[in-house]
Amino acid sequence: MKKSTFVFVALTSLLAAQEFIGIIKPIADVELSMPIDGKIAKIAKKEGASVSQGETILALEDRLQQLDTQRREIIYHDRSQLNSALKSQKLLQSLLDSTKKLYERTKAVSRDELRTLEMKYYSLEGEIEAKQENEKKEKVEYEMAKALLEQYHLKSPIDGVITKIELQEGEWAKTGVAIVQVVNPTICYLDINIEEKYIDNIKLNDSFSFNVKTRNVDMNKKGKVTFISPIADSASGLVRIKIEFENSDQKITPGLSATINIDFASKSRVDE
Predict the structure, then answer these.
(1) Could you tell me which residues come within 8 angstroms of residue 104 by beta carbon, excluding any fewer than 6 positions away?
(2) For 6-33+184-269, CATH number?
(3) Model-wide pTM > 0.85
(4) Which of 60, 78, 166, 180 meets the CB 3.0–4.6 Å disulfide criterion with 38?
(5) Sign of torsion, CA 93 97 103 108?
(6) DSSP 8-state assignment for residue 89
């Protein structure tokens, strides 16, 4: 029978310590899925690799979406019609001003000719406003296409290590189905359940010094209480708490069971 590995956390005690059973967990453990269906075209990072926040782990086939994004970008940046209309407006404005002066001073042009010219100007002005509004719509459509293209890339939301990739290149990824797991083991916490009668002796930000022992590790650690559940489990009457501690050298493996001996008399409060 395979022997289970346990982590023993012992606090130096002047009084009898209370023993609790819990699990060592990483502070950040996320399972990632795609927001859209698609075939995996490339896996940029392998299992066990370190990954930075925002770095691409894998990408779906996105050729068609790339082309659509390029098309919308060209449409958005094409200002030829608007520029032409603005130039025409400038010339028509100059002609209209001259015609008004001529009409007012010499009556060399008729009132109907002036009105016709004014109507052309206002019509062109309306066309320019419509083109400017359309340009705003084209910008939004281009931004939407870029945002959709981003959904073809699965990026890590945290700094960490990739612990699981369920699919391979060429396989189909389904929307909402977890296919990648990323963990940050550099900060961990002890997830334990204690009897309600001890809760009054534990406050948020209380600090505990303890020793963590495994087959290959024996080190002192200092943890801070970061969570105390406001409710007790209805079946067991136990209250869940978290004691967070630093694990930058990654010598302590998350997922291990832990027997935790807490001497409430030895705790100390740390500043928030």
Answers:
(1) none
(2) 2.40.30.170
(3) no
(4) 60
(5) negative
(6) H
